[in-house]
């Protein structure tokens, strides 16, 4: 069986492993480290051990997936469209990153677009981003974002074409689709990667993702299985200008070929959509500028002030969970682990203390300005600029100055 | 009706304190709790059970987890709240499982819960499956939390649905109806809140706010004290060792590290108008 092995001859009982473990998975007794039932085999202690006394032994069976890894090639980007049928911004971000990885690996980028054809020429737009090929189909059965239907189409393609890696946007749909594909293909999937690197020789994708609300980062590999699959939150990677520019004009980059690949006739959805209440207003997840308010704004009567500030900054308004629970704003505004993950260029955080669950949702923000009375508020730990002071006073002044500009 | 609720034991706080000098994790005897999303899923199941009990229909709610032996306490608590029975998959062979290996282990547990022996043990609620069916029967509904607060992958529900070839609805905000072999729910999508209907058996993953978990009743606690919580090994549920735990996990953590935080937080000094002017300048840099 696989397991954590401690070399008793080498272990000096220094307890560094015990301190490095987030799970209580290893203890030192009588100057000897011993794994406990809580060990998750994460390898944290292996790294921490100064005398190389700890190793994780893996079964032969685990290393041998029986797959011929060299038969897999190229990096696929799974493209998603919005209700109007237009490509989501995250698609261009993924294409940009995939092109970077492909250059290192010396392979090609293939975009996969299944759509119902609601918006014209999306495949052409995608083909102009610098990808070598777009695998495309237009099918009415893809009108609704039913992960089961999409998974059957994508898996059939992947089984035939064998991509080395597949990237998905970590949207609500992408987070449902990717695991359905992974389980059908019996391969590994890493959620919410914040960094991706590729080994030029082996094609191994090194996927870095936050754990424990971002307090710990884990670097993950999928050594013996292909395709290697990852989801990436919108806004984590910047879409290179040449990718979006090409997509806009179709002029600069040599257009990739478009291959039609129909969805098998027997595939049918089992989900009946009876109604939809569309998201109102702009999406905070896609916002370039965002004002986020927390309990520190005092009372609900200050909310119009915050809305006015957001309006003047041409920003969307987000909030923390307690404000949604108090009924000030609806759930669509909630930022954090149980709400939306956001990635604006500028986030102005007002009266937010910075609970870890909230901070987990703002990691993608480029610049964070925090306004809070409490100089010890955890939000300042992640902020780039801090204003320690009365939120209402600062916001009132901001509004006055912004109004004076117009 | 048979409902299986999958739960995960998570640290009571995801706040991991780091020792600023040694950059190691400071643990202060944090307790394990049921992942709050899964606690909400259990509440949804128990509400269905109550509803059906009121109309004289049977409903068996099974709580399933994969974890260390100490997780048994949390499953017993589920019975105290009203679950019919519980199964804990606990074996070193399951350790180090990624989501693929975890969903596989849970699928073995779900099959085991549908086996004749476990169905009989929980006979009280198994009216519809009362006839000893040959071979294991699958539940009508599998409920999971949308995600776990520690891992935050949200993959287990869709992977279970894939393994059983069931329809799956994620991020369910409201269970509208469950009748005539179909379940109707409201769930959050990229496009908005959708009202959808899927045939049973199905997998649902629920948002944390879908329901407020009830507290255990005194009678429930008494009943739970003597209730059977099956603790089974990988071999007992016929889990293939090559698909379990570390061996069955395609993904491997190769390194864990503390992210480098830029402590370069600049405090904007000066008067309020000066501070406001700086913020507006930053907004202009961000495209205003």
How would you describe this protein?
The complex is a heterodimer of chains A (406) and B (288). By secondary structure, chain A is an alpha/beta fold. Chain A contains 13 helices and 20 strands. Chain A has helices at residues 16-20, 44-48, 60-63, 89-105, 122-127, 147-161, 172-185, 241-249, 303-312, 321-325, 356-359, 379-382, 391-405, and strands at 3-6, 26-29, 32-35, 54-57, 75-79, 109-115, 133-138, 165-169, 189-193, 195-198, 205-211, 216-221, 228-232, 257-260, 272-278, 289-293, 316-319, 346-350, 367-372, 385-388. Chain A has a seven-stranded parallel β-sheet with strand order 9-13-8-5-6-7-14, with helices on both faces. Chain A has a five-stranded parallel β-sheet with strand order 17-16-18-19-20. A three-stranded antiparallel β-sheet of chain A has the order 10-11-12. The longest helix of chain A has 17 residues, at 89-105. Chain B is α/β, with parallel strands linked by helices and 288 residues long. In chain B, 28% of the residues lie in helices and 26% in strands. A nine-stranded mixed β-sheet of chain B has the order 11-10-9-12-8-1-6-7-13, with helices on both faces. In chain B, strands 2-5 form a two-stranded antiparallel ribbon. In chain B, strand 6, helix 2 and strand 7 form a beta-alpha-beta unit. Chain B is globular and about 75 Å long. Chain B starts with a strand and ends with a helix. The interface between A and B is large, with 114 and 94 residues.
